[in-house]
């Protein structure tokens, strides 16, 4: 069966058809070999799973994730009966403008990804030699703590910080393959690829994105520090006193999940990070509306609150059901955030004489919009650690302190204004 598959591969390789693919976001001319690997069909009667690749990286994913655009898609030549724990696959790499092939082998258990090492000394070897090596040494290319046959994953060989953060054999293989892919791209003077929409990062004690995780904790600390200052300086009977406590609680929850997500990227941590981040954006808009309409009738305030709670619940339900809609979530965040910023800035400009402290709010809005450029400037990380997203997290920490300073002054002003009103009523 394996020989027949390779014969089919060889016959298809000789086709002169050329096509265009999008390799990690950039348009490249595809060789006939890559065309076959990308468009080939596997035997679904054997229960083969969908897979996709980024450059030279083969990753097994769920069937719906195969639809993701702007990625090279390769298919594995797979052997073995249905339901077998170990599936051997032979992957042949073709260098551009040459007919030289690199043999490689990988072992998959469930969704485990193997490591393939192209070797210079293997140039020019024929198909039969490659096939013999693959079938004779199915597990020799693994760098993960697995047994030689790839059947078992030796847990004791992992450091405790990796096992505690749920780094499985599959994750180890993905991590190793990621850096091999980056090295292969750089060797050919190609741009650094993204993997599942994320740049490659050097992990630190099992933390996938150490800079973003640390800076998220820094934002968490900024909220804790400033709410303590708020409680110390603002009287408890001040208007909107508890509103800003709710805002702080929601923000702390969001930054906590941001830290967890950047530490280990799982579907649940990703969902919680996006949902909690949206809750902060929505809460900021809610606080702005309540501040501007604080003298409105209670019925109006209750209606506004009910609307925001229902809107948040509907958004969470939509994101949690089915395929995660990144585009919709981003557009909604940008729209609500922009609306909130415009309202805060307009209100600050209108009240700049009567309430001199509002300059803090205006500066906060201006700087907040400026640092958002870091989110747009999506570039490979410096030292494989600091990307634009992590620098955005770093820049938001001092802005939190500036915003709380405005909130403290505003609550003091409202408290003083309320006391003056009560004094006038008594007199």
Automatic annotation (TrEMBL):
The keyword Cell membrane does not apply. Pfam families: Per1. Keywords: Golgi apparatus, GPI-anchor biosynthesis, Membrane, Signal, Transmembrane, Transmembrane helix. Residues 35-44 have a biased composition (Basic residues). One of its GO terms (cellular component) is endoplasmic reticulum membrane. One of its GO terms (biological process) is GPI anchor biosynthetic process. InterPro entries: Per1-like. GO terms for molecular function: hydrolase activity, acting on ester bonds. Belongs to the PGAP3 family. Involved in the lipid remodeling steps of GPI-anchor maturation. This is Post-GPI attachment to proteins factor 3.
């Amino acid at each position: 069966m394996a020989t027949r598959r390779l014969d089919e591969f060889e016959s298809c390789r000789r086709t002169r058809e050329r096509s265009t693919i999008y390799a990690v976001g950039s348009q490249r001319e595809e060789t006939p070999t890559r065309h076959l690997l990308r468009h080939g069909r596997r035997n679904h009667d054997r229960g083969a799973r969908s897979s996709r690749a980024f450059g030279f990286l083969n990753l097994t994913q769920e069937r719906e994730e195969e639809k993701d655009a702007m990625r090279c898609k390769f298919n594995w030549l797979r052997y073995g009966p249905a339901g077998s724990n170990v599936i051997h696959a032979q992957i042949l790499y073709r260098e551009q403008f040459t007919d030289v092939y690199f043999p490689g082998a990988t072992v998959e258990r469930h969704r485990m990804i193997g490591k393939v090492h192209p070797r210079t000394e293997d140039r020019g070897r024929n198909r039969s030699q490659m096939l013999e090596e693959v079938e004779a040494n199915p597990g020799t290319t693994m760098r993960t703590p697995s047994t030689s046959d790839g059947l078992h994953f030796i847990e004791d060989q992992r450091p405790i910080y990796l096992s505690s953060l749920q780094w499985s054999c599959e994750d180890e293989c993905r991590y190793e393959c990621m850096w091999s892919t980056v090295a292969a791209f750089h060797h050919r003077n190609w741009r650094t690829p993204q993997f599942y929409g994320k740049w490659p990062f050097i992990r630190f004690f099992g933390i996938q994105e150490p800079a973003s995780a640390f800076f998220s904790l820094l934002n968490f600390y900024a909220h804790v520090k400033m709410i303590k200052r708020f409680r110390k300086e603002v009287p408890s009977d001040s208007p909107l006193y508890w509103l800003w406590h709710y805002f702080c609680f929601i923000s702390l929850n969001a930054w906590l999940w941001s830290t967890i997500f950047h530490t280990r990227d799982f579907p649940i941590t990703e969902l919680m990070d996006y949902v909690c981040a949206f809750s902060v954006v929505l809460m900021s808009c809610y606080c702005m509306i309540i501040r501007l309409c604080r003298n409105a009738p209670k019925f109006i305030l209750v209606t506004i609150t009910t609307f925001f709670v229902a809107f948040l619940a509907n958004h969470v339900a939509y994101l949690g059901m089915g395929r995660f809609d990144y585009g919709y979530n981003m557009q909604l965040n940008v729209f609500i955030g922009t609306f909130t910023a415009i309202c805060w800035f307009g209100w600050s400009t209108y009240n700049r004489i009567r309430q001199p402290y509002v300059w803090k709010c205006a500066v906060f809005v201006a700087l907040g919009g400026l640092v958002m450029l870091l989110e747009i400037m999506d570039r490979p990380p410096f030292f494989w650690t600091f990307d634009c997203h992590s620098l955005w997290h770093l820049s938001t920490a001092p802005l939190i302190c500036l915003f709380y300073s405005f909130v403290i002054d505003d609550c003091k002003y409202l408290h003083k204004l309320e006391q003056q009103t009560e004094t006038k009523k008594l007199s």
